[in-house]
Design goal:
It is built from 5 helices and no strands.
């Protein structure tokens, strides 16, 4: 089955992702609790590690594979296929737990679902573009280390 790139889908998913991130930042209270700061720092470090492993010139905000894409399987990509998405999910988790409002939880779940749809779309394109991607999928988790 051939999956075609659809720029409208790609940019809509990115717009939803950043819109939900903005809404979460506006809604969730800031916290200086040590545990929250440690988790957020860990999330930022994972995101930066992923960018470093990917190499800055190959980083793409839209889910469409770059023309000269190469499969990266080192750094955090040894454990999960989408460490940058994981870093976003991890960053907001302690704030959502502390907030414990339906609005915060709803926005967080909407962001999680958006990221999951985005990475599923991206993976459908990567399977066609990279010959060894299906093997890589079998060896790693999609989003959450050791779980999903």
């Amino acid at each position: 089955m051939t999956t075609m790139k659809h720029p409208l889908v790609s940019f809509s998913l990115v717009a939803m992702q950043f819109g939900l991130i903005a809404l979460l930042l506006l809604h969730l209270p800031l916290s200086l609790h040590v545990a929250v700061l440690i988790i957020e720092a860990l999330a930022i470090l994972i995101g930066l590690w992923a960018i470093q492993a990917m190499h800055l010139g190959h980083f793409n905000i839209v889910p469409d594979p770059m023309p000269d894409i190469e499969l990266v399987t080192d750094g955090p990509y040894r454990f999960i296929r989408h460490p940058m998405y994981f870093s976003i999910v991890l960053f907001f988790l302690p704030l959502v737990v502390l907030d414990s409002s339906w609005i915060g939880l709803s926005l967080y779940l909407a962001l999680f679902i958006t990221l999951f749809i985005k990475l599923s779309y991206e993976e459908s394109l990567l399977v066609e573009k990279l010959p060894h991607y299906q093997i890589y999928q079998q060896q790693t988790k999609k989003l959450i280390p050791f779980i999903l």
